[in-house]
Amino acid sequence: MIRRHSFDAPDNRRLAQLCGPLDAHLRQIEATLGVKLSRRDACFRIEGPREAVARTSGLLDALYEQAREPLAERALQLALVKAMAGTPPPPPTGADAPAGAEAAPAAPAPVVLRTRHADLSARTPNQVQYLRHMLEHDISFGIGPAGTGKTFLAVACAVDALERHGVQRIVLTRPAVEAGERLGFLPGDLAQKVDPYLRPLYDALYDLMGLDRVTRAFEKGLIEIAPLAFMRGRTLNHAFVILDEAQNSTREQMKMFLTRIGFGSKCVVTGDVSQIDLPKGMASGLVDARQVLAGVAGIGFTEFTAADVVRHPLVARIVQAYDRARLGDERMAAR
Fold first, then answer.
1. How many separate helices (H) and strands (E) can be counted in the chain?
2. Which among 70, 95, 252, 302 has most CB atoms closer than 10 A?
3. Residue 103, pLDDT score
4. In the predicted model, what is the mean pLDDT of residues 172-182?
5. Are 274 and 143 a contacting pair, CB within 8 Å?
6. What does the alpha-carbon distance between residue 138 and residue 300 come to, in Å, rounded to a whole number?
7. Are 116 and 208 in contact (CB under 8 A)?
8. Using 50, 70 and 90 to split pLDDT, how confident is the model at 99?
9. Proportion of the chain in helix, strand, coil states, percent, rounded to 5
10. How far apart are CA 154 and CA 162, in angstroms?
11. Pick from 111, 218, 208, 222: which is nearest to 166 by CA?
């Protein structure tokens, strides 16, 4: 399909910022949405599958509106994620609605989190479901590939709960398992030894609260970060507890962790079952929990896919390539 897309009373400055230096933004749109783009003045020629062409046309309109200022890389990437999600336009209403059409059910109100990012919101349908599971369930699982926002959104919900006094503290934990490397002896006290494993959690906190507030929260005991092994024997009341990189927990560790939850607490477990770093032959606690706890009341599961990746669009294509390779290996093994 070929469609021509143009803007009324075009602004050359905004058109230049839409296209990017040497049309870099257009090339990125082509690679992500699978279309061919060309431009002559204010008229764009879009060539590709019908659905991709429609998404590209809507994306060009959205980016043109944002192009009053130079488009930041993050803004372009988030716009591409929304375009890939293919959120349909709202149904016609009033005089534009077809005769006899029933009113569509009202969309649920968006989840608003209280962090220092006023525009923080879910970017894909699965992220919306994930946020609602965390708000509505005492225990929630977010399972999927890197870049889907599992950890960041969980930490954002924890910060929001602390800000609204829904919990008294945040507890963040990870298994201390190396990603295919051997770090050897690490000098320093306990905090310095486990810091490399927990750094991504610190980064999310700093981004959502700011360095000064995080430092004060640690001093007051409002935030605690510890390796998974140190959770045994504890009961965590009135806390928002997050287990990150849970694919590297064992079955025994997962059961131990989930039974730490106390009154007034919420627990979120995140992980990517395609990146298990446990020794060969050792079962992942996350894989086991997904099977054992399916259907248990009070527990919500959100499964993310490459379509939910909100990092650079290339990350989604990398995830898809590895998924295809894994499926090919499984078919060969089944023969």
1. 11, 9
2. 302
3. 43
4. 68
5. no
6. 8
7. yes
8. very low
9. 45, 15, 40
10. 12
11. 222
- Where does the chain have alpha helices with state H? 12-19, 24-33, 50-66, 73-85, 125-136, 150-163, 190-209, 211-220, 251-258, 285-292, 313-334
Half-sphere exposure of 197 (CA within 13 A, CB side): 28
Lateral strand order in the sheet of 43-47: 2-6, 43-47, 36-40
At 216, list the tokens. Answer: 């004060």
Q: What is the pLDDT of residues 119-166, one digit of tens each?
A: 677 778 898 899 999 988 999 999 999 888 899 999 999 999 998 899
Distance CA 130, CA 319 (A): 20
Q: How confident is the model at residue 177 (pLDDT cuts 50, 70, 90)?
A: low
Taking only the tens place, the pLDDT of each residue in 264-317 is 999 999 999 988 988 888 999 999 999 999 889 889 999 998 888 876 667 777
Lookup result for tokens 């919500």: 300
Say how far apart CA 189 and CA 193 lie, in whole Å: 6
CB 36 within 8 A of CB 49: no
* Contacts of 114 by beta carbon, 8 Å cutoff, 6+ apart: 159, 160, 163, 164
CA proximity to 271, closest of 184, 144, 156: 144
Q: Residue 45 class from Cβ within 10 Å (0-12 exposed, 13-18 middle, 19+ buried)? A: middle
SS3 category, 29: helix
Mean of pLDDT over the chain: 81
| Number of neighbouring beta carbons within 10 Å of residue 109 | 6
Say how far apart CA 261 and CA 234 lie, in whole Å.
Answer: 9
- What whole-number distance in Å separates Cα of residue 25 and Cα of residue 17? 9
User: What proportion of the chain, given as a percentage, has pLDDT over 90?
Assistant: 31
Q: How many CA atoms, within 13 angstroms, populate the side-chain half-sphere of residue 285?
A: 21
Q: Are 64 and 14 in contact (CB under 8 A)?
A: yes
Q: Give helix 50-66 / helix 73-85 axis angle, nearest 10°.
A: 150
Q: Read off the amino acid at residue 298.
A: G
81 within 8 A of 124, measured Cβ to Cβ: yes
CA-based torsion, 60, 61, 66, 69: positive or negative:
positive
